[in-house]
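Suppose you are handed a protein chain with no further information: no name, no annotation, nothing but its sequence. What can you learn? This example shows the usual starting point.
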Amino acid sequence: MRSVKDILKSNVLATKTHNPNLKSTPNSESNSPSSNQNYGETDHSNQVEAFKCATCHDRGIVLQGEVAYPCSCMQTRKLENQFRNARISRELMKCRLDKFRFDYYTPEKEDPSHREAASRALNASKSFVEECKLNSHALGILFTGPVGSGKTFLAASIANELMEAQLQVLFLVVPDLLDELRATYKSEVNEMDLLDTARTIPILILDDLGAHNYTDWTRNRIYSIINYRMNELLPTIITSNLSLDEMEDYIGLRTTSRIIQSSRIFRLTVEKDIRHQMYYERELKK
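A reasonable first move is to predict its three-dimensional structure. Written in structure tokens, the prediction is:
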């Protein structure tokens, strides 16, 4: 099993990419006759193969004179790998801030508070993305609120837009992280690799910091991540359905205190679980 740290290792491309209008140099081997070809047999070696990139034939480089440049397709591959390495689920890869829907927060009764809170959280998310592009030491954000209030959507949208800006992000679902940490006792995965990656990644997202079965051991690991990142001024986005008082009970006073110190806090509320609203929308279309 590969550690998160190993997964995150990827090739760094040159900033100059190939102009797709330039012609690539054909592979000389494909034009040379096969020494094993018998007279009268059809030579299949020169048949055109199906390449994902017609410019570089999936080699990743093209030649301009005697100089080799990365093909423009490599930037696309790099972005695809970045999304994969960030550990964001396929469903959450579709989230973007410009797709945020205020109609989910329109109350059945005349109470504007849901929409106003959503507007504040969305504006904070946009500001965070812009600030991270300029400053690697921005304040983090804590999104709180009930299940189905849009917290994860905002966190995933932030992650996706930052990765599109070539920033390094790690998206961890807290229950999965705790399971992985416990599993280090029985596998070849190094616990310190996992913790070091979570501590030092430029932007970390901890999704669903909820009422899990925390032990003193797991509380200490969560504290280790939060405390390191606070001291190094590394921004963290956290989503939780716990109130601050509940958070103190579950993960401890010192960890909660550090989250408050290093974050802006926004609470999202809805009349009805957004996932339920999405379900009814989908079913009505059938």
